[in-house]
Amino acid sequence: MKSIRWGIIGLGKIAHKFASDLLLIEDCNLIAVGSSDTNRAKKFANKYNVRESFGSYMTFFDNAKVDIVYVASLNPNHMELTIASLNSGIAVLCEKPLALNSIQVNAMISKAKEKKLFLMEALWTRFNPVFEQSLNWINQGFLGKLRYINASFSFYGLDKGDKSRLFDLKKGGGTLLDIGIYPLFLAYKLLGMPNDIKVCGHLTKGGVDEQLAIILDFDNALALLYSSFAHNEDMRATIAGEDGEIYIDSRWHESSNIALVKNKEKESKNFDFIGVGYSYEIIEANNCLREGKLESSKWSHKNTTDLMFLMDAIRKEIGVVYPNE
Ligand SMILES: NC(=O)c1ccc[n+]([C@@H]2O[C@H](COP(=O)([O-])OP(=O)(O)OC[C@H]3O[C@@H](n4cnc5c(N)ncnc54)[C@H](OP(=O)(O)O)[C@@H]3O)[C@@H](O)[C@H]2O)c1
C-alpha cells in the first residue's frame, strides 16, 4: 500500500493532538511541519520525530515533499494557506470551519478543482465510529421517520480573555464557528437543509457570539441546537424518530458510547478509539488519496458548502461580521 506523506502547518494546540493520532495510523508518515516561528517548528518536529521543519510557510510550500498538508492555523488563515498549498501541488485537509464564509469556501473548492487536488474540511466527528453507528441504525430504519434532534456544545471559556482566538473577531472567534458547527453538522447531515432557521444570540462587546440558540425547521422535523462559551454542561445528543431514539453520550461530538432505544429496549455500543479520535479523518483522507479521489463522499465539498451557507445565514441574523466581510 502506498504510504501517504503528511505535513502540518500552523503548530498550535490542535496540531499537537492531530500529530499524536497521525503517528498511530499505519501506512502514513508525518515528514514535514511548517510554522511562522522557527523554534516552534523545530520543537514540534523534535517531539514527533519529524524529518523536516520549516520556519515559514513559504519555505514549507517550496520544499516539503508531502502528498497532503493538514492546515491547523486560525480560521482567518485557512483560505490563504489552503490556496497556497494547492498552488504548490499539495492536497489539503483543513481544520473546521473550512473558512470564515461561503465566498472563501467557494474560492478554496474552485482552486482544488482547478488543480485537481484533494481537499477536505477536517470535520472529524463525521468519521468517528459513533456517528457511523448512528447512520447505520438510521439507514436500517430503526428510528422510523426522524422528527427531532437536540445537540449542543458548550464549555466555560470566559476566563480566557479578549485576545483568545475564541473571543477575538480578528481571529475568527465566536461559538458558531468554533463549536456550534458540531450540532449544526449533526442536524444537517441527518436531516439535510432546513426550510427555515430561527436564531437567538448573545454577543460580546467585541462582537462575537458567546451564547447561541438555533432552531432548524424541516418538513415534519425540528432541530434544537445550542453553543456557548459561558458555562459547562452535559453534552448528550438526542436523535429521535417516530419508532425509536438514539442517545450519544457526553461529549457527543467525541463520544465512544451510543445507545438505541426502541420498543422500551436499549441496545448500547461502546467503541474503542484509536488515539483521541482524529485518526478516523486521517484514515479517510489516506483512503481518498490512494483511490485518487478529489473529495470525500462522507464529507463532500457540497456538505461543507451547505454547512457554511447555514453558518452565514445564522451569523447574519445575530450580526456577527468578521473584518473585511
Ligand atoms: N477539530 C477540533 O477538535 C478542533 C479543536 C480545536 C481547534 N480546532 C480548529 O483548529 C484551528 C486552530 O485552533 P488551535 O486551538 O490549535 O489554535 P491556536 O493553538 O491558538 O493556534 C494555532 C496556530 O495558528 C497560527 N496563528 C496564526 N496567527 C496567529 C495569531 N495571531 N495568534 C496565534 N496564533 C496564530 C499559529 O501557527 P504557527 O505555528 O504557524 O505560528 C498557531 O500555532 C482553528 O481553526 C480551530 O477552529 C479544531
Could you characterize what this model shows?
The protein is an alpha/beta fold. It folds into 2 domains: 4-125 and 278-294, Rossmann fold, CATH 3.40.50.720; 129-272 and 307-318, 2-Layer Sandwich (Dihydrodipicolinate Reductase, domain 2). Helices cover 34% and strands 26% of the residues. It contains 9 helices and 14 strands. The strands form 2 sheets. An 8-stranded mixed β-sheet has the order 8-9-10-7-11-12-13-14, with helices on one face. Strands 3-2-1-4-5-6 form a 6-stranded parallel β-sheet, with helices on both faces. A hairpin with an 8-residue loop joins strand 12 and strand 13. Helix 4 (78-87) runs parallel beside helix 5 and helix 5 runs antiparallel to helix 9. The longest helix is centred in the C-terminal third of the chain and has 18 residues, at 301-318. The chain is globular. The N and C termini lie far apart (45 Å). It binds NADP nicotinamide-adenine-dinucleotide phosphate. NADP nicotinamide-adenine-dinucleotide phosphate binds next to helix 1.
The major beta sheet can be summarized as: 8 strands, mixed
Principal-axes shape call: globular
Would you state the CATH class of the largest domain?
Answer: Alpha Beta
Rg, rounded, reads 20 Å
The N- and C-terminal alpha carbons lie at a distance of: 45 Å
Order of helices and strands: EHEHEHEHEHEHEHEEEEEEEHH
Domain count: the total is 2
Query: Considering the protein shown, what is the CATH homologous superfamily of the largest domain?
Result: Dihydrodipicolinate Reductase, domain 2
Which cofactors or ions or other ligands sit in this model? NADP nicotinamide-adenine-dinucleotide phosphate
User: How many alpha or pi helices?
Assistant: 9
CATH fold-level name of the largest domain: Dihydrodipicolinate Reductase, domain 2
- DSSP strand (E) fraction? 25-35%
